[in-house]
Structures are given as structure tokens and as C-alpha cells.
Amino acid sequence: MPLIKRYPNRKLYDTEAKHYVSLEGVAELIRQGAEVTVIDNATGDEITSLILMQIIAEQERKQGSVLPQSLLAGLIQAGEQTLSAVRRSMAGSLDLLRQVDEEIERRVQSLVERGILEQEEARLLSAELGARAAAAPTAEELHKQGIPSRDDVKRLADQLDALAAQLDALVERDPSPKS
User: Fold this and answer.
1) DSSP symbols for 58-73
2) 3-44, pLDDT tens digit by residue?
3) For the chain: N or C, fewer Cβ within 10 A?
């Protein structure tokens, strides 16, 4: 897990790769599947969520509408409780998709084991299912319609997890309500 340190001059230093990185560099690490942690070098505070929000803001500025505006406004309006509910809902949706994939694979394998389907037919069926999946709308097409892709939903769920953890940490530090 790469540890990134942010210095007072706002430069980001990847302690694993031993070089400075830009926000885009951090975004690329995340796209490659790395679970990045960012800490403020001066205070030692974890600021991963802040950096992730900066990356999203930068993508919005450069590419325009990475996430639907209604989703962003809804997150702001939602507050902590709804963010947690959205995170749980997204996790459930991702889990459901995984379960459907596993069930299809299980049923194809069952047909092979019962002799109803030959290995070659199973391979062709899997190829057909793969072709159908390939014919599904691309992430770009989904974005144009304002619909997040599975990867978008997973990234958002991960970001929500990080935000929730950061909120929990803040509440633990100062549980008294502000007036």
C-alpha cells in the first residue's frame, strides 16, 4: 500500500517509489488498484479523502462531468447518515452482481457435470456470455447518459468508505457537538 506524504508546500511524495508525484500520479496509482494512504507530513493526520476529493475536483475541471451533478449535490445534501446508507447500498449492489456472475458459472458447470453440456459447449457459452458483456455500453457511453459504470460505483463506494472512516476519526477526536 503506497504511503504518500503531503508536505507544507503541497507537494506529494510517494515513500514507496521514492519520488514526488502529482495528483494525476496518485490517481493513476488508484486506477492501477493500489490502496493509497496520504498523510500530512507536518501533522501526521491522514488526509487521503481530501486528496481523493481534490483528484475528483481536478478531473471535473479538466474532463467535465466525471460524476453526475445530481449525485454530487445529493452527497452534499445527504450528510453523514445518508452517505453511510449509500455506501452500504452500493456495496450490496456490487455483491449482487458478483453473486449473479458466480451463479451463472455454477449453473454452466452443473450442466457440464450432468453431461447435458460438453466442455466445448460450455466454452462457447462462456464466450457468448463474454460477447454479450462486451456489447454492453462502455463506461464512456454510460457517462454520457449520466449513468456511473461498475468501476465508478466501486470507486465511489471506496471513497465513501474513506470519507466515513475520516468522519468517524473526527468524531472520535472531538465528540462534542459544535454550536
Assistant:
1) HHHHHHS-SS-HHHHH
2) 999 999 989 999 999 999 999 999 999 888 889 999 999 999
3) C
Q: What is the pTM of this model?
A: 0.45
- Measuring CA to CA, how many Å separate 23 from each of 14, 58, 170? 11, 8, 24
Within 8 A by CB and 6+ apart from 78, the residues are: 86
The residue behind cell 465513501 is 160
- 3-state SS, residue 157: helix
Task: Please name every residue paired with 20 in a beta bridge, in sequence order, or none if there are none.
Answer: 13
**Residue whose cell numbers read 506529494:** 12
Nearest C-alpha neighbor of 3 from the set 58, 44, 53: 44
Q: Using alpha carbons only, what angle is made at residue 25 by residues 38 and 1, rounded to the nearest 5 degrees? A: 45
Provide the pLDDT confidence category of residue 174 given band limits of 50, 70 and 90: low
